[in-house]
Amino acid sequence: MSNGDLANALLQACQQRGIMLATAESCTGGMIIAALTDIAGSSAVVDRGLITYSNEAKMEMLGVSAATLEAHGAVSRETVLEMAAGALARSHAGLALAVTGIAGPGGGSPDKPVGLVWFGVALRGGPVAAELNLFADNGRDFIRSETVKHALEIGLRALGDTQEMGVVP
Q1: What CA–CA distance (Å, rounded) separates 154 from 80?
Q2: pTM of the prediction?
Q3: Domain named CinA C-terminal: which ranges (predicted)?
Q4: Beta-carbon contacts of residue 43 (< 8 Å; ≥ 6 apart)
Q5: How far apart are CA 132 and CA 150, in angstroms?
Q6: Beta bridge mates, 130
């Protein structure tokens, strides 16, 4: 499925459940919320998109702790969990998606190479979950586009709509 098809499916799944959606984005710089709001009528479901590119923004807008960032870095399981939880707590959403990663071309290291992206998902009343993906280093545009696609798929999976929408978990 294309990113547009996935975005439409996620909006429909949220609408069917009567929940709003929020995003907390770092490496995508708002591309997830853009994919969702490109669709007419998305305002019925989209609550907000928080672009938290800097560590300061993560702390101020999402409540990510300085201790987490210092101990684990911006691109980590711990940070994305706090990002997803923070987006949910600071919105009217029932579903929050968060991403933080290294889109390149620079910024990678042996421990955190270019293409490494952490995904977080939080459902109101449920646990916050994280998932790691290492995309091929096929350029910044590729990594960011694949990150958007995977985040939308994770949102559908969290709502239990993966089979119905033809998304392979």
Answers
A1: 14
A2: 0.94
A3: 5-154
A4: 37
A5: 11
A6: 120
- Residues 118, 119, 120, 123: what is their CA dihedral angle, to the nearest 10 degrees? -170
Q: Residue 72, Cβ neighbours under 10 Å: how many? A: 14
Parallel, antiparallel, or unpaired: how do β-strands 95-101 and 128-134 relate?
Answer: unpaired
**Tally of CB atoms within 10 A around 45:** 24
Kindly state the average pLDDT of the residues 65-93.
98
Look at the alpha carbons of 111, 140, 132, 30 in this order and tell me if their dihedral is positive or negative.
positive
Quick one: pLDDT at residue 1?
A: 86
Residues in contact with 137: Cβ distance below 8 Å, sequence separation at least 6, in sequence order = 104, 108, 113, 114, 115, 143
Q: Which two tokens stand for residue 131?
A: 């998932």
pLDDT tens-digit readout, 93-122: 999 999 999 999 999 999 999 999 999 999
Level-2 CATH architecture, domain 3-158: Alpha-Beta Complex (3.90)
